[in-house]
Amino acid sequence: MLSLALLASGCGTIEKASQNQKMHERLKAYAHEVRWGALEALPAYLRPAMVAEQKAIAKDPGNIRVTEYEVVVPPAPAGENKIVQTARIDYLFRDRQVVRSIVDQQSWEYEPETKQWFRANAIPAFE
Description:
- The chain is of the alpha+beta class.
- The chain has a single domain (2-119), classed as Nuclear Transport Factor 2, Chain: A (Roll).
- Helix content is 30%, strand content 35%.
- It has two helices and four strands; from the N terminus they run ααββββ.
- It has helices at 2-35, 48-51; strands at 64-77, 82-93, 98-111, 116-119.
- A four-stranded antiparallel beta sheet has the order 1-2-3-4.
- A hairpin with a 4-residue loop joins strand 1 (64-77) and strand 2.
- The longest helix is centred in the N-terminal third of the chain and has 34 residues, at 2-35.
- The chain is elongated, with a radius of gyration of 18 Å.
- The relative contact order is 0.19.
C-alpha cells in the first residue's frame, strides 16, 4: 500500500511539473505573438467560448508595431489551476508614430481535460 501511495504522489508531481512546463511554453508563445505583431493570432489563446466575445484588438493591426513586451509581474498562482501575470506592452502606430503603452493584466486557466492553458480574460485593445 505504501508503494501505491508513493507512486500516486509521484504521478501527481510529474503531472504538476508537466502543467507548469505547458504554462511557461504557452506564456512564451503568447509573448512571441505580441512581440512580433501577430495581433490577429491572439484570440487563439482565449478559451474557445470567449473568442466570439473578444472585441477587436486593433482597428488596423498592420499599422501597429510592438516595441516592447515586458513581464512586470511574473506568473503567480491565483487558485486551483489558475495564474495571473502582468505585462507592459509598448507599441506605436506606424502611420502617425504615436507611442502608446498598455498594462496587460492577464489571467490564465489550465484545463485538465485538454491539458492546455487558456487566457481567461479579454485581450486589451491597442487604441
